[in-house]
């Protein structure tokens, strides 16, 4: 403060006599009222950062009053996880048998071990905020049409979510089922942080009352008008605390006929591309695209993976896939197939070290979750892909992201990975595996459902237009 006053008065003193370019001295006298005003302004501006810092410190103390363990820049691991083995599952039996995940106490400092290659950006911060979410987050689900309604199939949960015919759109149905089974749902909308609109884009695509996909945006816009007239909650926030789920590219266009739905509501979608005009990364959420399957508990170790790379899929809708097949299709260390592979699809993931996720019609496919499920390191070749949970997970610690312009260097990049680096990627892949699985009958802590609602939790606290 003293330095600031000396600086200001020094400037005033210097300004009292300003040499002119001519030999004559021009005196510029600063009036006392103006000097007082100038000094007061400097003092207020200098105090603003200190006041802001004090306010944020108080808020942080109120938010985590019982946190006694230190937040370190070195990323640390949860003692309930074992990064160094493949035998300890994350969730305990009590968590598996309860719709409400059990709250774990902060890890004792004497058993926390630092790990520079942790797949989490900051496990401690995530852990503390996640526990708070389990205690506080509430979601209100808008009423679904009863079975007698002609549109009931659009809103009601899928009767058989593990049906393989659901395929790439399983995540959309699994989220709804898991939410309805969780303890996060509230029947008191006034206490809800978010409001779920339970229509299914995937169901609409094959529903007999929809003559074409172009009629979906009109139906959704009409639905928003209906809930905004029957309930007050949409109007209170202009839809900013409302969300819907979709795992098909048609879902993006579903918002195109309603301005507030596109600009304000949260879209939880598998087609999470920065490049798409109907996806806004600051408010929308990337949903992992997962194929319906029962969980395997045993992974092939790295020593049993005798192929360097695996890929199988359609190339008609992807120039990038065509180019990669042209470059590496004849390489014997690559198992590359246009269409179906010559052996069971899952075997390609089990016997390979790296599995390619290459952009097709859109940035997303289920191949990333397939690779994670079978213990194959994902190689992501899909520009502008907003990867799921990227604000929590450090994807560079369990996958390899290659820019589309670097595909000619693909093999060089992969064989440059040392054995120690690969082992680290593999261990981290096992750690994050639980985040890319669904349990629609009964959600399990840290699975895809809870990781997705945690993304909602991070978007809470929106200012409503009416108190």
UniProtKB/TrEMBL annotation:
Pfam families per the UniProt record, alphabetical: Exostosin_GT47 (PF03016)
Annotated source species: Penstemon smallii
Disordered: annotated segments: 75-105
Coiled coil spans: none
Domain Exostosin GT47: from-to ranges: 135-415
Membrane topology category: Single-pass type II membrane protein
Family, per entry: Belongs to the glycosyltransferase 47 family.
Transmembrane segments: none
Protein name: Exostosin GT47 domain-containing protein
Any one GO cellular component localisation term in the record: Golgi membrane
Compartments, as annotated in UniProt: Golgi apparatus membrane
Example of a GO MF term: glycosyltransferase activity
Extent of Polar residues compositional bias: 88-103
Keyword Cytoplasm annotated: no
Lineage summary: Eukaryota, Viridiplantae, Streptophyta, Embryophyta, Tracheophyta
Source species, domain of life: Eukaryota
